[in-house]
Amino acid sequence: MQAVQGPTIELGELLHQYQLELALIAGASRAASSRPVQWVHVSELEDPAPFLTPRTVLLTTGARFGSMRTDADAGDYVQRLIDAGVTALGVAVGLHWDRVPALVVSACDRLDLPLFRVPYDTAFIEIVQTAARLLEAKTRDRDIWSLESQRAVANASLHRDGLGAAVREAASRLGHWVCVTDRFGRVVEFAPERARPDLPVEWVRREARRLIERGVSAGRIETESGTGMQLQTLGRQGHVLGVLAIEERGVPDIAERALHGLVAALATVQLEHRSGIRSAQAVLRDAIVELLLAEQLPLAERLSTDALTRFPRGPVVVVRYAMPDRLDPTFAEDLQSLDAGSPGLFTATTHAAPLIVAESRHLPAIRRLFTAHGLGAGISDRVALENLREGLMQAELALERSATTAVRAPVEYSPATHEGVIHLLDGLPEAKQRAELLLAPVRHHDLRHDDRIEEALTGWLAHHGQTSAASTELGVHRHTLRSRVQTAAQLLQVDLDSPDTRAELWAALRLTARTPD
Question: Locate the Purine catabolism PurC-like domain: which residues (predicted)?
Fold first, then answer.
């Protein structure tokens, strides 16, 4: 990263100081006057370039110019100065030369390095002191600008829309666009609005994510055109809330860097505040779901006033999904956008798993979201809010089926698919009649002898033929249970050791609905 640039003045400011009587005699291009000056240095070395810093004005009496015999010698000397970042060359006359050597003038003109003549009566120290005075004034002006800008941005952050107001004020003071993204790279604040059409949104998003993924706190990105942006993460270590991105043209000076730091600090505070609000709203949403599951609809609706955009109305669907180990950040971003922009839809968590409750009209958007990201989900049938518990059970059944499919996509609940074979048989009158005929001998026996053979058979089958567990549940001795089961086998004339027989009897008991599930 480039070093922070200190205050500079323009070359024209120095040359226009009338008391110095400096005259520009070469390299007088249109941009010469605006070239930056940060220091004035005096040297009589044959090659002073290794000892010079960028944005320096070099002063010399030309004591070593006598060694230049050709245009190539003069060109090499000037090129070394240009490579060192020298802003301009000043040559004094009246000591070693009555006029600046033509070879030097020609080389400066050819290579576009500003060259000015210093008259005999102007001491180099006067030029150095004048430049220092101009730089000091510029430093004082930048300090005043910095303090006023920081005060204005801090005051703006106290407004109701604190983060947005601070970003707008900072952009106005800097003259560049300023952008704040969330941790997924999505732009949450931007200014000025007139620059929005030119904002490279995808570039900002990509670089913001890359900065966070690399685990660094700041970075600078530059394009081939020379424009770029400064990036700085917002938040604290291990809890990044977003990224501050500021357009830049060239390297910012200390005053601008100070303003950048203030904006980053204020943005962090504002995002922390928003994060706290979102956390509180998440807790409220979880409580709303619990109230709906408890059929406390009026209380849930009252609690939703500040937590939801709008409480769902009419039939709703419940969506249950499992978060993968490596979640695409864009899914969370898209889900947040869907949540924020869809009245009657909200996300929550229950039983440590996420879910979505939404009016049925949002179902197409929900399908598109999960399909686009290749995530499995279970979607319930349309249910009333009073029956949210049933909708949640349906969504969980659908999610289980989604987990067993090869295609990662949402699966919608279907009774024919999710309630099994017995549910299908329940809709067939012939199946129920066959079940009643199968169990008739046992039921006739119980009715005639006031016995409990059917109850014993049901309990024994429910416990997979385990006599001890079934007898404990039924409250009878295991020998009594075993005797009743043997009686059932004799009455039905079946082999209870056969799994097919057990399955058929269990289905018959369920279809005739004389015993609880």
Answer: 14-133
What's the average model confidence in pLDDT over 319-328? 77
Q: Report pLDDT for 516.
A: 43
Element spanning 25, H or E: strand 23-26
Residue type, 125: I
119: helix, strand or coil: coil
Q: Which helix (H) or strand (E) holds 264?
A: helix 254-293
List the structure tokens of 212.
Answer: 């966070």
For range 374-379, the mean pLDDT: 89
Residue 322: both structure tokens together: 């499992």
Place of tokens 């009016």: 359
Strands (E), 217-305: 218-222, 227-236, 239-249
Contacts of 221 (CB under 8 A, 6+ apart): 207, 228, 229, 231
Of the candidates 188, 172, 192, the one whose C-alpha atom is nearest the C-alpha of residue 180 is 188
Q: What is the DSSP letter of 241?
A: E
- What separation in angstroms does the CA of 299 have from each of 265, 293, 374? 40, 12, 36
Report residue 177 as tokens. 């666009």
Tokens of 275: 């994060």
Tokens 């939404």: give the residue: 358
**End-to-end CA distance of the chain, in Å?**
71
* Residue 298 reports pLDDT greater than 60: yes
The single residue listed with the structure tokens 């499919």 is 405
Cis peptide before 415 (omega within 30 of 0): no
pLDDT at 421 over 60: no
Structure tokens at 186: 């999505």
- Ramachandran bin of 292, using left for φ above 0, alpha for ψ from -120 to 50, beta for the remaining angles: alpha
pTM above 0.85, yes or no: no
Coil, strand, or helix at residue 150?
Answer: helix
